Amino acid sequence: MKSTAPADHEPEHSSKQTGQTKPPSPSLKSMIWHGIKSDASRAWYVIRNTSFREVMRRNPGEAFGAIVAVAGAIAVFIYCVYAYYTYFYSRQFTRYPEPVAQALRKALYFSNHDPDPQRALKYYKQALELCDQEGLDHFSDDVMGIKIQVAAWLEKIESYHNAITVLENLLNDCKRWVEVMEKSAAEGTLPKLEPVPAAKEGEAGVPEQPREGWWAKRTRLLAKAVSISVKLANLYSDEHVLEREVAHERLVWAVETALKETQRRAKEGLKDGEGPWMSLEEIGGSLEALAYSYQEKSQYHLAVPLFFQALRLCQDPCHIALLMNNISTSFAEHPLIPPGDAPVHAMMEESKTWATAAEQRASYLAAAQRWAQNAIEHASQPQGDRRTSECDRACAVALSNLGSVLAMLGKNSEARAKYEQSIALSKKFGFDDYAAEAEARLRSLPEA
Q1: I need a surface site. Which of 7, 43, 74, 168 has the fewest CB within 10 A?
Q2: pLDDT per residue as tens digits for the range 144-186
Q3: Do you know which Pfam families this protein is assigned to (predicted)?
């Protein structure tokens, strides 16, 4: 079978065969810096060894170029100094004690600016050890933020299992803290929190500050645990890991925890100082992620109600269209289940009149057709700033899915028209994958 190499792949030349090594080409950055440095040096030499007035009289163009070169070099130098201090002395570092901040600066330098995984890991570990020495709370956002940054860096360098280990440990720590706190609260043994001590000697006049309450801390750590669990699900689903069952377990826990806490607050009210819980958009995102997980497991009957709940919480008109399309897909692939056994049957009046499996299947396909049409209508409505590329994607995919549903219903001519519309729209907006899939579905239709 003929294969085509990528366009940017260059063949190896005969230098390898002769044993000669081609010197590396200088980078664009080094070329620009070398040019500025050379021009600045030359300009300074001219200014230092020649009367400026004489140079201006004899060759004004060269004099002007010298001035520009010197000014450019100074501007670059000032910018580099500014960028260095803006980044390495920003709030993300100065909120830590100086020893911790210094270790973090080195860790991030060897993570992003001069990549060296061994040295970066060394300084990340050093930063966490110094947090212990400085007496920082292990469950503060600052300390947990370092651990999350380590996991993100490990993912970036494709050390996925190590990233998972870091996040799993953090998730378990958060879970244990919440469990112990809830047990103590139920037993009435939570210790009284004293306010943060007043300013140290020589800093008089700074008032005492209240500590974070137990229930406020519980809310923060529980929300953090939910977000970490969702992130772990993404990592476990990654093609380099592919542990989908574990990914599904993490998503189930995240969704159940988010909904359970929402219901507790609605039933019991807020505790003293508890603070707000996850936003509707965040909860909807967790529901949607779990629904996709059920789709991957071909458990479409479990995905449908989750997409419905996510749809109720969604405020973005373009994303609403995408959710409607996913509902359509789930109905189209919905397995035949005895009436009343699937969560979505309660929302379908047809479930009362199904007599045969064929009637049930026809009812699912009719629902799939309605939701695909709804998705197309909603994706077409937003205009101006409210319209995003997600609307265009939702419309293109919904047209293709509607064609598939119509084909399942035996309406091949209508299906062909929807496929053609999807192909045209996909090509218009550059969605090549969608166009290719719609074309494949079109070819699979029987000839009229």
Answers
A1: 7
A2: 999 999 999 999 999 999 999 999 999 999 999 999 999 998 8
A3: TPR_10, TPR_7
**pTM, entire model:** 0.68
DSSP 208: P
Q: What are the Cα distances from residue 362, in Å, to 94, 346, 359?
A: 63, 17, 5
Structure tokens at 283: 């909860």
24-53 residue pLDDT tens = 444 444 554 555 556 555 555 555 555 555
Q: Among candidates 40, 35, 69, which has minimal Cα distance to 61?
A: 69
Task: Tell the residue number behind the tokens 């929190």, with chain if given.
Answer: 193
Cβ(91)–Cβ(142) below 8 Å? no
For residues 69-94, average pLDDT: 57
Could you identify the residue written with the tokens 């996925």?
160
Phi, psi of 48 (to 5 degrees): -75, -35
Residue 297 has pLDDT above 80, yes or no: yes
Go through the chain and tell me how many residues it has: 448
CA distance 281 to 260: 16
Per the rule left: phi > 0, alpha: psi between -120 and 50, beta: everything else, 376 is alpha
* Cβ count near 244 (within 10 Å): 14
Residue 146: CB atoms within 10 Å: 20
The distance from CA 240 to its chain's CA centroid, rounded to whole angstroms, is 17
Longest CA–CA span in the chain (Å) reads 104
Per-residue pLDDT tens over the stretch 105-120: 888 888 887 888 999 9
Distance (Å, whole) CA 379 – CA 391? 5
> Measured at the alpha carbon of residue 313, what is the angle toward residues 149 and 276, in degrees to the nearest 5?
55
The pair of structure tokens assigned to 388 is 């995003």
Distances (CA, A) of 7 to 1, 18, 43, 131, 321: 19, 26, 43, 49, 37
Task: Provide the 3-class DSSP secondary structure of residue 209.
Answer: strand
Q: Angle of helix 317-332 relative to helix 300-313, nearest 10 degrees?
A: 160
Tokens standing for residue 397: 């995919």
Q: What is the DSSP string of 309-374?
A: HHHHH---HHHHHHHHHHHHHHHHTPPP--TTSSGGGGG-GGGGT--SHHHHHHHHHHHHHHHHHH
